[in-house]
Structures are given as structure tokens and as C-alpha cells.
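User: These chains co-purify. Model them together.
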Amino acid sequence: MSTNQSRMSELELKKLKPYGDILNDGTIQVSFTLPVEPSPEAREAAVQFAEKMGLDQIKIATMEKAANGFAFFVIYGNVRHTVDYTSIHVVKVEAGKRSREEIDEIIRTKIGRKLIVLGACTGYDAHTVGIDAIMNMKGFAGDYGLERYQWLDARNLGAQVLNDELLKLAQKENADAVLVSKVVTQHNIHVRDLQDLMKRAEQMGLKEKIVFVAGGPRVTHPLALECGFDAGFGVGTKPSDVASYIVEEFLKRKGIHIDEPKE
Amino acid sequence: MAHLKLDTQKIDECRKLAREISEPVEAMISAHTTIAIERATLRMIGVNGAVVRNGQYYPEVNAIIEDLHKEGKLGCGVLPLFVNGLIQTGLSVQALGTQVAEKKINLLTLPQAPVEEVQTHAKKLCADARDHLIRQREIRDANRVELKDPFDPQGKNGPLIYVIVATGNIFDDVVQARAAAQAGADAIAVIRSTAQSLLDYVPHGATTEGFGGTYATQENFRIMREALDDEGKKLGRYIRLTNYCSGLCMPEIAALGALERLDFLLNDAMYGILFRDINMKRTLIDQHFSRRIIALSKIVIHTGEDNYLTTADAVENGHQVLASQFINERFALNAHMTQSLMGLGHAQEMDPEHPDVFLLEIARAQMTRDIFPDAPIKFMPPTRHKCGDIFYSHLMDAMFNFVGVLTGQTIQLLGMATEAMHTPLLQDRWMSIKNAKYIFNGARSLGADITYNAGGKIESWAAKVLDDTLAHLQMIRSKGLSKAIEEKAFAEVSRRETGGKGYDGVILREPGYLNPFFELL
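Assistant: Joint model of the two components:
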């Protein structure tokens, strides 16, 4: 064990490399398909791709015929590149990760009423897959949606809700949070729609009253901030990530302190 | 095949309750029509064009039905008006459809032919349409015989390998589907574009842009059918085609699927209500008509009970699935379908870390097989507990395949290692098919070589689920289906009788309602 520790003390975070079984070996595994029949030429093409990816000591673990005219590869190699871990700065949503039970309990004890959350796909976007994953009971990847939370009054307004409509409803219903999902990104329509929503929210004096959250496969936290939102969530976000954020942000604005997440 | 010893009296009682639950619903169904049924009727007699609206194709049947519905003139159905239009103008069905859709002819201001003449003419049109559907069915069935079809409803040949394609572009879908067939797939499902089920029209023509799937259109059906027929000839194996007959256009998709020789349609009596928030009456009325078409065309439906387990806990709620299967079975029988066409759905969705989880999953899968011995059971893979760990995910799929072959499931929708990440890549599908072939082959005869311990964990769990199902159906019967759904009988979702989408498309039938398809199908 002491050997192990001393070995790992040689880790240089300024020159970080993937780890296989020896420090700094740079071992990685990739798999992909080339749209050509498996052949010695296809194998060579795969090797050249791996070289261009920055791999040394390339091993084609397998070349399989996945279909007529398609060769599937699994490749191992040692990557030449390094990354300076010490210079990485990520703008991220500042909220702990809490469970549904924990969130419900916080709302019950600290707020004492249900938080009203409206979710929608705005503009002409008809792709509800994202907002459904967050809002609907079913949730996503085993994480229940906001409708399932006992202390959230979560309403999924569905697709093609106009910005104006959404804000008027939020005002009327005294919403505490508004979630906007944008999937379609042609001609940057998602950015324009998000900016427009926040401009209107500001005019209506809702910006401080409501926690605004944007989400979608091409939405990042920095992008959401740029558009005037309070937070942005991308691919793989779970309902409890969003709920954790909403609750923390809501309480922060009210000046109510809560403990760090249990996990 | 090993079977569970289940209390047959309780099973009979469940079926009796399902029939009682369906009775008031059937009365409601036969008192109504919907805009979707009327559109499907027009499509079947041959109105299949589109007009351009806001730069997009809009089906003629929608233009026609919308205008008549606005005027409140659909109480007797569209046929009295449309057939009168044919008689008065002497135009062909197609020509009249176009003229009416373009508002060049107003069906409401034409002179009125005698009622008997309209009825006779309508009956002939519908009978011709039915004969056309039968011919299409016969072509499909002849292809199955010629190319050798591995499908057996009772699952005696081992699970059918079923995979999805979902590129959004029908022409890319064709490449993916052919590749999957070459790798060993027996059935291809073309996933629909997200939220198509909420469109109150069927898009027109070949489509190349969709999100998370490809639009279901008649032309897309035709393109894929042609490709699979061609690929099947090369492989010497009939490849089945699947699409989605749910949402606001259920009857129309059934009609188009029948016309284009589809083999499988996802079609559930309650899915739309629960998971798409479609109005209860609308879906129940629509599912009946769609199933009448499906019954004639002998398409195998797949019901959506797997979805319950993604919303409600899969260990706790097996009885909801079974109760729903009994209800789906009853509604299908009411629509003249035979057991051999009922691909009752369920899924392996229990928490993989639950103690003895495979015993519970085997119990559920085996009891589904044993309670519905003639039905082509559709088994759906784990999705809920999947995340980006593709290696663990692949292992979950392997165990799912093992349970499937052990318990004699008929149709196995293969899981994908990249579930919850993206729609399947070509390599994902290939890897998954390789996994299934390995296990289906290796454990082919295992089910026939074992017996379940009397009173063992598996049998006891099945008995418990059956008891819970009986109680659940008793509750639903006493409250009525709509009240029970409102009180979250299924999937922990509550829906109201007058809520949801598409309620304005439900129409009370008036005396003189004319639609010969209800007798002919």
C-alpha cells in the first residue's frame, strides 16, 4: 500500500494523462464504426484514425463486420496528449445534490408550502423529451420527475408555449420557478428565444421573483447566464439536480440557511 | 417449457372483471365518433392528398374534416356528406377530396340525393376499401410464407429479435434497418419523431427531419416496407415492420399501416390517456376503431404496459401491469381481435440492486406467458435504471435476454447499451443483437428442462401479483374505469374524463350516423 501511495505521489496535475495500470501510461479505449467492409485496408484506416487522435502503441482489439459495408472497431492505445488540470475553471451551477425525500423535507420545514414550478418548451419547439424527463412523474434514468415531488406543484405546460403566454401564466399563478426547455437549435433559435423570454421577464418585473432555469442538449450553464437565466442544465441532467437547485436558490433569495446535502 | 402453477379461478375472475369494466366504456364508444375516425374513413376510401398550408403539407382529410367539424356537421359522420358530394358532382373520390380541401366545393351547399342512394354508394365504397385492405394483407402474408417467417405467437421458436431505428431521416433509417436485419434482427420499429402523438394530423410524404425519431407517414411506411422486403429476399428471412398507432391519429395510422402492409403496431387502450395526456374518451373511442382495422388486417398490436413500470416502482406495481393487460385484452376482443394478435407488453424494469431481482423478474415474465398462452407477449428491456455506464447496461440487457428466452417471451425488444444517451448507433444495435443471439441460442431449451419449485420464491411472487391484480381489478370495477384512472389506478398518473388533449374532437353520434366500416371490418 505504501508503494501505491508513493507511486501516486508522482502524479503531476499539470500534465494529467489517462490511467490504465501504470501512472501516466495514457491508456484509452475507443470504439467506432467505419462505413466500409472489414478488410486489411479498413484495419489500416482505423489505425490511422487512432494515430490522428493522438494515440501511440495502437492495438486493434477487434474488427467486426457489423453489417454489409460496415466495420466495427475496438481499439486501445496510449494517448500522447496531456491536460493541465490546475488551470481548469468550470462555471457550474452552485447547488448540492439532494434526494427527492430531502428536497421535499426542506420545502416542508423551511417554506411550509408547495413551490410552484412551471415547465415548458417555448416558441415553436415541439420537442418535449427534455422537459418531460424533468417534469413528468416518470422522470429520467431512475430519478423521478418534479411532478412526483410531494412539495412541488409542478406543471408541465408542454410544447410550443409562447414566451408571453408562459410569463403571464407564471405571474398569474405566482410561480416560484420557471423551467424552459430548448431542443431545436437551428439558426440559434434557442438563444434568441431564451433572451427574449428574459427581456420580457425583466419588463414584467418577474426576474427577481422567479427562479428561471433553462435546459436542453445544447444549453450550458454559461449560455443560460448569458441569456439572463439563473441557471442552465445540459444533457444527462436529472430531475433531482434541477429540484436541488431551485430549492437552494429560492432559499438563498429569502436568506434562509440550509445544511449541506447529506451525500 | 416450465410453467407456474397459478390459481385458474382467480385468472378467470380477473377476465370477468375486465369484461365488466369494459361494458360501460363500450356503450360510450358506440355512442360517439371522433374527427380521427372520420379522417381515417376518408383515407380508407381513397382521400390521400395534401394541401399546402403555411408552407407545409397538410392532409386533405384534415382540411375537409376540420371545416365540417367547425360547422358541427359531423354527427352523422363524414360519409353522408362526402358520398352525396360524389353523387352530385360525378367526381372521383380523389378529385372531390382535393376540391373540397381547397374549398372549391362546399359539401354543405350541394343538393341532397336520396338517403338510400347515399347509403348504397357509401357501402360499396367501403366494401371496396375493405377488399383492398384484404388484398394488401394477403400480399404481406404471402411474402411471409415465401421468405420464411420466424414468428410464432406462442413464442415456440424463441424470442423474436426486435430493434428500433430512430435517425429522423427515413433514408438513413433504411440503411440502419438493413444493417440490423443483416446482423440478425427479425423486426424493425421506426421510432416516431418526439411528440408526433400529439399532432392531430399525419404528416405527408417522405420526411428527412425528425427529433429522436422519424415521422410516421404513409410514404415513410412504404419506403421502409419496400426496403425490408428487399432485404428479406436477400437474407431469406421475412423482416417485420413496426410503427406507432397511438396518439391523436390512432385510427389513421392503423389505416395507413394496414395499407402499407405493416406487421406490428404499438396500440394501447390507455397509453395515450396516461402518458400523453390525451383525453380519455377520445383515446378509448379511437382505439376501438383502430383495432377494428387492425383485426381485419391481422396486424399484431403491442400494448404499452411497460411504461407503467418506468413511472411506478416495478417491484411494487406488477399488478398494475397485469390488470391493464386484462383490460387491453378485453378491449381488443371487443374490437374483434384474436388472442394471437395481442402482443401484451411488459418490461424488466426492477431495480437491479433489489435482492433476488431475477427471481421476481422471472416470476413476472413467466406468469405473463402462462396467463396469456396464445398471445405474442412483448417483452421490453430495462430503461429506467440505465445511465451512461454502457458496460453495466450491456450486462443488464444480457440478463434481460436470459429471462426472455427462459420464460418463452414472443417478441423481445432488445435493450441498448447506450440507452438514456442517444438513439442507437449502428454499432450499438449490432452489439445488442450479438448479445441476444448468444443467449437465445445458449439457453434455448433451458425453460423446457427445468421446473419451478412449488411454493418457491418465484411461484409465491407470481401468486402475490395475481392476488394484487384481482384486488386492483375489483377496485376499478367498483369505481368505473375513468374514476379509477382519475385516482391513479395506473402508473401513478391521474387523468380526468374531460381533461387532456383532443376532447374537442369527440362527437356524439346522431341518428342516421353512417359508417359502413363498423359492419365491414
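DSSP finds 20 helices and 13 strands in chain B.
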